[in-house]
What does this fold into?
Amino acid sequence: MNKHVKLAFMVAPILAIVGFIAADFYKESEAAKDKIVQLVTQGHCDIVNKSCVLVSGEFKVNVSDEAGVTEVNSTFPLDSATLFLVDKNNKMTPYPLGMIKNPYYWRNNTPLGQLLANKGASQKLRLIAKIKGGQYISEFSSQTVK
Amino acid sequence: MENKEKYWQENLRLIFICLAIWFFVSFGLGLLLVEPLNEFRLGGYKLGFWFAQQGSIYAFLGLIFWYGAKMNKLDKKYDVES
It folds into this structure.
């Protein structure tokens, strides 16, 4: 090993540390920018039968309803979550969800259970889930299949 | 004196080439182009992720030995004592 290789081996860790710090700054500034990401339904969405998953990459949101309480459960902690019920005239009624124990679980009383009680019933919904550095939005329909 | 100047200029050129490759491999492939590279896979890993985790380190090691070899040639060319 000659002197140049020895010198390069001494300089390389310093460059690696500088690179690590610069990469950290870069990713932090990227994460600070507000992003809007659209969630899509994974297969058929049936909220009443607890089979409604919205997905974008590794982020998943499960929407379910039981006894008039609609619950949103996500794979990453949320800052806030709002569910909108959309009627036939495209008019939205917002239902801000409240955090339950930890920021992975959010719920609120909604009339969704009544609206989707019968087999074949369908309801258009919108969801806005705020997370550090961005918003996840989705427009989807839930249809009761059984 | 002129020889020393040329030797130093060529050394600097080599260092800048190494730094450019270092930047391209680590920031370019591991951060800026990570999404398109992740469409491809290498040994079961997403290529962008692999570059950020391992590929760039292999490239750094390669650069060290390449730099050493090139400098050896420069030393001989300009008759610099090693």
User: Anything to note?
Assistant: The helical segments of chain A are 3-32, 112-115. The CA atoms of residues 117 and 137 of chain A lie 25 Å apart. Chain A has two domains: 1-33, 35-143. Chain A touches chain B at residues 1-5, 8-9, 12, 15-16, 19, 22-23, 26-27 (CB under 8 Å).
